[in-house]
Amino acid sequence: AMMEESKLTCFQRRYLMDCVKRGTTLPLQCHPTSSKEPAPAAPAFSPPVCQPRRLSAKPHLRPAKVCQAGDAYTREKFKPRARRDLEKEKQRLQNILATGKDVVEHKVKQTLVQTKEEETPEPDRFEELVNEVQERREFLAEMEALGHGKKYQSIILTEISQKMREMEIIDKKRTEDMREIVTKDFPDGNKSDPHL
């Protein structure tokens, strides 16, 4: 039906039907009166046909001496790795068979955890608060430089005042602790100052 609508000649119809029967691709152009195969014209939109590369008559093989002179025939030298301690492995197996648990690993893990905990000192909350206040001031300065200072000013100033209040509480506690230490060391204290 499509052939009739396209107003193809009888020759063009026969040629297309023959292509379909053979299972080949349909031609892009079919000349109306010629019975010979048209020379294929490479259209701009079709992918280029991959042509096999012609091999030169002279082979490009490397001689054996060149191959042997390189690193192709050298083997990597064997490098022994650290061996396991067989006595420790025996003890470990005995522990597993006797108790059902690997006792040695647990001790090692516990000692590692304890040393890690001992190494990290407790961070000073007062210093943390000082750093947090400084970060908020820097953030507010950046926002003001970008033109968004009014948007964040009230929030940041509120947070800074909260941090300052917490710092005051910590400072009062430290002062009271210092007073207690001083009064223990010097029970008479300072009689001239009634506030101490």
Quick tags:
single chain, 196 residues, mainly alpha, 0% strand, UPF0193, EVG1 protein
Indicate the low-confidence ranges by residue numbers. 38-44
The fraction of residues assigned to DSSP E strands is under 5%
Overall average pLDDT: 75
Over all CA atoms, what is the radius of gyration? 45 Å
- Count up the helices: 7
Distance between the termini: 113 Å
**Range of helix content:** 55-70%
Number of strands: 0
The helix/strand series, from N terminus to C terminus, equals HHHHHHH
Structural class: mainly alpha
Based on Cα principal axes, name the global outline: flat
Main sheet makeup = none
Structure report:
With 196 residues, the chain is mainly alpha-helical. The protein has a domain at 125-184. Helix content is 58%, strand content 0%. It is built from 7 helices and no strands. The chain is flat and about 130 Å long. This is EVG1 protein. InterPro entries: UPF0193 (IPR007914). It holds the Pfam family UPF0193.
Can I get a quick summary?
This is EVG1 protein. The chain is mainly α and 196 residues long.
